[in-house]
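Subject: sequence -> structure tokens, single chain

Hey, anyone have a minute? Need the predicted structure for the following. Not urgent.
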Amino acid sequence: MMARGFALFAGTDPEIIRGSAREAEALGYSSFWVNHPGSFDGLGALSLGARETKSIELGIGVIPLHTRGPDSIVQGVRATALPLERLLLGVGSPKPSALGRVRDGVAALKSQLKTRLVVAALGPKMCRLAGEVADGVLFNWLTPEHARVSAGWVREGAGAAGRKPPTIYAYVRLALGAKAGAKLGEEGSRYAAIPAYGAHFERMGVKPVETCIAASSAGDVPLALGRWQGAVDEVVVRAITAEDTLAQHLELLRAARPG
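Reply:
Had a minute. Here:
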């Protein structure tokens, strides 16, 4: 069965991060993630969830290597005392020089940290590189159909390197209700304005919101997530709420719960 994770914005109120991490573990989610947007320290935010949990995997999706180098990332992981055995350390890089920066960055991090490295990948070259060097690959803003294509590129890279394919994760944004759906549309527009993502949406031939789940009710969520079965190893539900309250995040967690 496809595993399921849950993800929050790193700038979410600490009480929501702590409460959501506890609930995700209690409900049987495989992983709990935050992003690293630059304006907030994702490693510090993730450590809040780490202290509330015992076994769930902890993902950071992802730290950009062009703004924070491997040595700084290592220092951050050690300073926050994140448990390496549970950590999914996500990294990525925009163009130019993205492939070389990611290859070198992953090698440097592996030499200093005994943890799993996850590479963010959009296009075919980065997907193949992730298959070659990473322990995991994180997709973002794509459809289940294109995820299958991208997963094929990852497996090609792993096969060429003579290694087992990495675990494939996909961020899937989920909103419940009209107000949250409107926020989902706004976020999609912001990403479409980023050149790399604009090209990504054009390559797929879809609008940003077509890669997301805008559910009218909690009962619609299982069927929508079921479209991802077989496309990736783990869907990471990225929470989009109308208001940033713990109650609304818990509602999403329960609507998308595994099984």
